[in-house]
Amino acid sequence: MPVSALLGVSTAAGAGTTQPDRLVANTAWMCARSALRLILQGAYFVAVARGLGASGYGDFISVGVLAAMLAPFACFGTGNLLIRDVSREPAAMAQSWWTALATTVLSGLPMIAALLALAAWTLAGTPLLLVLLIGIADLVFAQLADICGKAFQAERRLDLTATIDTLLSAVKLVAALGLCVLVSTPTTLAWAGFYAGANLLGAAVGIGLVVVRHRVLPPRFSVSVRTLREGLYFALSLWAQAVQKDIDKMLIVRLSGPLAAGVYAAAFRVVEMAFTPIFSLLAATYPGFFRHGVSGLRGTIAYARPLVLVGGLYALAAGLVLTVAAPVLPLLLGDGFEGSVEVVQWLALTPLLKSRHYIAGDVFTGAGLQRLRACLQIGVGAAAIGMAVWAIPLYSWRGAAGAAVVSNVLLVVASWVAIAVMRRRS
């Protein structure tokens, strides 16, 4: 059986065509990157968690969560617009890339100021220098590296996207090991300095790779009211994703303290790493949703069908492994993380749920229904905040885990019901 049949990809010519060989190669690159990145991220995570301890790791994560919620507005959705425009018209690369870089730099600065203000309000006592370093790292340097990865993703050169992502993970691991070796008593503030340096290097290498590959990318900028509106929908969608994923960690810090937050965040990190192969498959297929979206919702639904099956099978297997292997965590991270075992087992179902609503979201995005996707995510994000505010004071991390699972279920149901309704109307 040909590869295209296994993946359910059309080989016919046309605007919505996905080259099966390129899709398979891209998926293979992203899966290879996932395997290597899992190893690198796992080692980096263990080094930082052991170096800072549960409480110190909770302090770092609490600022990182705030930064993650502001990050979508640092690039204002221009990375996703770059993928959309270049996947449909390769000649748009120079204008899309320069516009994305300029927007990220200009938007990143006020986002850093907003992060400082939010941290002063929600995380009283957190050193402002810590917040500033994490803000620069996550809201400027990391966003620039991400823009470069998206430039290659748009051209279906995910081998280069994988190179940037893997290099960034490797640099963070080196930074974490450097912290443990060079600093006799590692602190959260010291780690923030190493972390910012690692992200700066990742951004520089990403920009260098884009310049070397294209040689000549004359500066071209184009910002219109329509572009800003479309970018806003992508930014709101990404922001709602971040809120749904991370609001519980910030609330745990505020309502239960950094120790509980560190235990919960460590477990959540493990579950996120288990989702990485699915995320890689979605990254490889994301430009294809835009190409198939030329024919509307029916085109993106047809393109998504094999992904639903493949993602579901992997997610079920990953959930089983997470449940069985969770007791190993305290041996890797230290005695302060015993509670992470139960958290992982509570969250073991989330890779399956996330695979379902991420695919549904890409169906909307590719068909030009990004506003609908953003509205669904904002609605579920609001519900997630409400559930977390109610449950965390009563049940600590168990309340956070329960709210996370329920919010993912809500988004799965809302997304696929909306797809069914929209398809019937069309």
Major sheet characteristics: none
Shape: globular
Question: Based on the structure, what is the oligomeric state of the protein chains?
Answer: single chain
How many angstroms separate the termini? Answer: 33 Å
Q: Secondary-structure element sequence?
A: HHHHHHHHHHHHHHH
Features:
single chain, about 425 residues
Provide a quick synopsis of the model.
With 426 residues, the protein is mainly α. The protein has helices at residues 3-7, 20-75, 78-88, 93-122, 128-154, 158-182, 188-214, 225-256, 258-292, 297-325, 329-333, 340-347, 350-366, 370-395, 397-425. The protein has one domain (3-425).
Structure notes:
The chain has 426 residues and is an all-alpha fold. It has one domain. It is built from 15 helices and no strands. Helix 2 crosses helix 8, helix 8 packs parallel to helix 14 and helix 10 packs antiparallel against helix 13. The N terminus is likely disordered.
